Amino acid sequence: MMLLDKVLDPPSYGWTDRDGAFSKPTTKQLLREFLKRINIFQSKKNWLPLFSWARVLLLIPLLFLFIFNYFSVALLVAAFIYSMIIMGTHGTIWHHRYCTHKAYRFKNRFWRVLTQNLTISMIPEEIYAISHHVHHAKSDKPGDPYNANGGFLYCFLADVNHQPIAKDLSAEEYKQTVQLMAHTGVKANCYRKYQKWGSVVHPMRAISACLVNWLVWYGIFYLIGGHALACALFGAAAFWAIGVRTFNYEGHGKGKDKRKKGYDLNEKDMSINQLWPGFVAGEWHNNHHLYPSSARSGFLKHQVDLAWYYIKFLHFIGGVITYHDSKASFMKRYNGA
Ligand SMILES: [Zn+2]
Ligand SMILES: [Zn+2]
Q1: Structural domains of the chain, count
Q2: Fatty acid desaturase domain: which residues (predicted)?
Q3: Rounded CA gap, 213 and 116, in Å?
Q4: How large is the greatest C-alpha to C-alpha distance in the chain, in angstroms?
């Protein structure tokens, strides 16, 4: 069995039914699974998905403080730009193109850590990166952790229900899993600690790294614009973290074939190029499925790709030493399409 067939912890409703077809759970099953899998009293191995949602819940009060206490139009604009453009583009730069696809290489640790912490930290690297390999291997098929055929909630709750790693990996399988993230700088548990915590990252490391990130960013925002700006932008980060959980459903056509002939050139799955995620985060998702390891996904003139501009800029100043760029290959294909 290949690693990607078993690296994720299967939900209790399974990836497939008895006939091997996609198993679509009911809303009740999805919610029950969600509650079971964030219950750390049942198993402390559930800590990581709980931590992932706790980050959002902890910041919701700041969102309310912004709305009811500090609200101004200028801050609303700042919050909008921060959540939609800055957080979104950072997700593409760091979690997507670097942590999963290794689309470029940093010169050294400094640039990697700087890029990792360029925004308020919301999504654990492990939850995103490992499961995203599975998404590419099984797009829109059983086993895809955010299979759009499962419906909105199937994708929205995926970071708890489908994305955490399996708890019963052998020592060799665990070693291979760790390898998938070795370049990210996230320090991995030894096999014994993995058996205890059920994750690659140790909870103390993950929590302290997040805390340092939050304190530094709160301090910076406070110095610039007091508690008002800090609440606006931390609230914006929570808002983004909820919104981004809807992307995988929409990016694959909400379970329908919404691909446009001659525009969405990759026909192997249901991914589509959408204007909004493209403009704000460089997520031209059909292009990306065509060239997953490219550091650029916006290939056509109107396909703005802010994540690519950052990577290119870092390359210009020496922080990035190599990158893949599939534009030439795409254009050849596109013109022949
Ligand atoms: Zn996809
Ligand atoms: Zn990808």
Answers
A1: 1
A2: 76-312
A3: 10
A4: 60
